[in-house]
Amino acid sequence: MLAFQNISRYTDYFEDPPPLALAAVNSHAREGGERHPGGGVRGCNVAPVNREIKHTFKVDSSKVARLDLALWRVERQRDYPLHIGVYFSGTESLDDITTWAYLSQRLSESWIEHTFGLDVGYVESLLPFTELLKRAEEVYRRECLVTSLEPLPGLERLRSVGLSSCRGALDLDHLSNCSNLTRVNISFCDGVTSTETLGRLPHLRDVALASFDITSVDFLKGCQALESVSVSYYMDLISLVGLSGLGKLRSVNANNSGITDVLGLAGCAALETVDVRSCAELASLDGLSGLPTVKSVFANMSGIMTVGGLADCAALETVDVGDCASSPHWMGYPGCQT
Q1: Minimum mean pLDDT range among 23-32, 140-149, 273-282, 292-301
Q2: Domain end call among 180, 213, 246
Q3: Distance CA 120, CA 92 (A)
Q4: Are 288 and 172 part of one and the same domain?
Q5: Average of pLDDT values for 188-193?
Q6: pLDDT tens-digit profile of 136-178?
Q7: How is residue 17 annotated by DSSP?
Q8: Under a CB-based contact definition with an 8 Å cutoff, are residues 144 and 157 in contact?
Q9: Which residues does 89 contact at the CB level (< 8 Å), separation at least 6?
Q10: Residue range 120-140: average pLDDT?
Q11: FRET partner for 308 with CA separation of 20 to 30 A, picked from 31, 131, 153, 249?
């Protein structure tokens, strides 16, 4: 019996998901398979979602039958809440919504706690998804023509919003109704407005913005829960001053931007990683000096001339200033080189 209980250890030997025959030996082996980083068992993983361990499934909207086959496992072993990631692509996929809403109703009637991650592509409006949105923790929109984020009701569960390659005048104002948002990712979208809305989200932890017009990050200065910021590829962004003093901020990525200094990071006492690669106007790292938790600084292919700004960074482990416009001065760092 002991050998069967320990069989789940052997799932770690597989780079790809372990064979179903091994995962089906007993509940221990099944859970070991579901935790496997290669993809779990038959689409089912045990993995973190918004920092909570859950049973997760990812399926195309037309493949609801695949989830149906696996529900017996969830119904019998409720160690973790259920999170279902569903990809809807094109207007024809809207016909699948009714089936998913019925499945959600079945789960609720069986007292199975569940949430959705909706990945929606090539669909203009979220209005047809109203029922599923009531249980949505994540919403991602790709290649959509949108003019605003509709003020839909019942989004209290929503934790993560992503927008990629969307067209139209995109007003973020309605995100203020999603008070529990922790993550926002917006990339390659035209006409984004009302970015100041992000500063009114009290639980926002992760922000990734790319390839639309912003000239400062002042709109983030009220986000006291912020831990990670990515604002890469903004040549009109010259300062990070809006981030100054954010006590929980751990990671900043401003590569390929127009920043001229990192003084705005002074006072970020929890900062660990700074990425300012390919920032041609950035000549020094002043602003990082004395920050006690900085471990990694990536400033290669930038305008850095001296690394004196890293003085007294006691936790520093990695510095990359290779291929800079001039050879940076390693004053105070004998034996170090780029």
Answers
A1: 23-32
A2: 213
A3: 12
A4: no
A5: 84
A6: 999 999 988 775 566 566 678 899 999 998 887 788 888 888 8
A7: P
A8: no
A9: 60, 61, 121, 122, 123
A10: 91
A11: 249
Q: What is the DSSP letter of 66?
A: H
**Element housing 33 (H / E):** helix 27-34
Q: Give yes or no: residues 154 and 259 share one domain.
A: no
Burial class (CB in 10 A: 0-12, 13-18, 19+), 151: exposed
What's the token pair of residue 211?
A: 């390839």
Structural domain count of the chain: 2
Range of the structural domain that residue 209 is part of: 36-213
Residues 44 and 88 in one domain: yes
Under the banding of pLDDT at 50, 70 and 90, the label for residue 26 is very low
Of 213, 238, 256, the last residue of a domain is 213
If asked whether residues 116 and 190 sit together in one domain, one would say: yes
Return the exposure string of 88-113: e unless at least 16 CB atoms fall within 10 Å of the residue's CB, then b. bbeeebeebbeebbebbeebeeeebe
